[in-house]
Amino acid sequence: MTIKEVVRNYSQRLKQITHIPAKEVEILICHILEKNNIWLHLNYNNEFNQIEKLEKLINKREKDYPLEYLIGKASFYGESFLVRENVLIPRPETEILVDNAIEILKETQNKTVLEIGTGSGIISVMLALLIKDIKIIAVDINDDALALAKENAKKHSVEDKITFIKSDLYTDIDKNEDIFMTISNPPYIANNYKLPTNVKYEPSNALFGGEVGDELLKNIIDETSKREIKYLLCEMGYDQKKPLENYLNNFNIKDYSFYQDYEKFDRGFTIEFKN
């Protein structure tokens, strides 16, 4: 079969899984052949002789196994990042969190940032790429995540700007460290929430935040306040704005704001503490 025929035939099997079945088949073919999309379309009428490899990938994708895990990479902020099983897959809405951090960091002298729950390292790596003279401490409790984040830092040549530490939130962070900002995309889904099939393949400890879902977020707010860190930026669940806003009444806060994601759901907040 030609590449064109393969795309047409196999895309039928992914119609119930994705709204771009043909595009996904093309992505898988490019992954197998180690070619880009331009090459693919220039060679659309050539024979494709790696059907067995494609069949294995399609079989997995048919079961809603994430495309990013199949090809080992994901796009974030226009850059390519390595992705691996047992580490959360980057989401486009996290780009907004990075944007918000950049707006604050570019106006300040102290550019020491702590990222809690670094995962694949996308937030820390992008901040390191976009902010001059930044110093980042990136923590996670997942050894696989830390290993992958280090790989992504090296891939983007920013490993000298980021210190990776295994830590549960602030536990292993030096109390004397002069941190200006904490940033986090922590687990914030309620434990009893029924996940879509594709998300079930991702690590549960990067998704579930407790019985209600916002427990870890509240812990981060508590500890950030105690450590007298000026800024806290976090992602959150779409239904957590009101309870978190009420919770902020317990703290000495100069200013705070919530933001929405690309779908207009409440998705995160910025807190400026009074120091």
From TrEMBL:
It comes from the Bacteria. The keyword S-adenosyl-L-methionine applies. Coiled coil: none annotated. Keywords: Methyltransferase, S-adenosyl-L-methionine, Transferase. Residues 102-191 form the Methyltransferase small domain. Its EC number is 2.1.1.297. It holds the Pfam family PrmC_N. GO terms for molecular function: peptide chain release factor N(5)-glutamine methyltransferase activity. Gene3D superfamilies: DNA helicase RuvA subunit, C-terminal domain, Vaccinia Virus protein VP39. It is an enzyme of class 2 (transferase). It catalyses: L-glutaminyl-[peptide chain release factor] + S-adenosyl-L-methionine = N(5)-methyl-L-glutaminyl-[peptide chain release factor] + S-adenosyl-L-homocysteine + H(+). Residues 5-72 form the Release factor glutamine methyltransferase N-terminal domain. InterPro entries: HemK-like, N5-glutamine_MTase, PrmC_N, RF_methyltr_PrmC, SAM-dependent_MTases_sf, Small_mtfrase_dom. GO terms for biological process: methylation. NCBIfam families: hemK_fam, RF_mod_PrmC. This is peptide chain release factor N(5)-glutamine methyltransferase. The lineage of its organism: Bacteria, Pseudomonadati, Campylobacterota, Epsilonproteobacteria, Campylobacterales.
